[in-house]
């Protein structure tokens, strides 16, 4: 019964509700068979396909599984790219928290540190006026988890993946690090690796923060419109990779 309720909710709340409304309007105007009906039907179909979870999974899956995290990562420094942070929100030992993506990345960095005891570079600045400084928040949280202060370097000016790479390269050069282990979300890793390699930085990818399961399972919920977040994330990455060629 719970799954039936979830299925129905998907079409009673936006964006599913908008798809239903467009379909109803098309049905009422169907007999006229004019250009407006064709356009509204096309919009309804496009919205439906864009907002069902299956579309997002199929788009993001090739990104997430391009690289595998090595069982025994080798390098001389761990580099983590920022992925969003809040400003002024209460935390246990200060203010400001990392977003879900960035928090997952930080957890992986901490576990890698426990395994390797390598120094850490956190890259990420204040992207928007109402967001926190990603690298500084990450540093505070790692110190609270027990990572020594002297083991953490911060690069807190970057606001894009490209500036992450450019500014991180400066720190790598200054501290003579040559073999960075790169930690970022799995969907983000292909673009990040490409931008670092354009700067002649040969990273060891360590993807984390997966949005999809390795096995794609087809069930009714995959065809219920949702917020389309995964689809948007995947399209953003594909557009970003295209832009990196220019």
Automatic annotation (TrEMBL):
Residues 76-240 form the DUF218 domain. Gene3D superfamilies: HUPs (3.40.50.620). InterPro entries: Cell_Envelope_Assoc (IPR051599), DUF218 (IPR003848), Rossmann-like_a/b/a_fold (IPR014729). The chain crosses the membrane at residues 7-30, 36-60. Keywords: Membrane, Transmembrane, Transmembrane helix. Pfam families: DUF218. This is YdcF family protein. It comes from Sporolactobacillus mangiferae. The lineage of its organism: Bacteria, Bacillati, Bacillota, Bacilli, Bacillales.
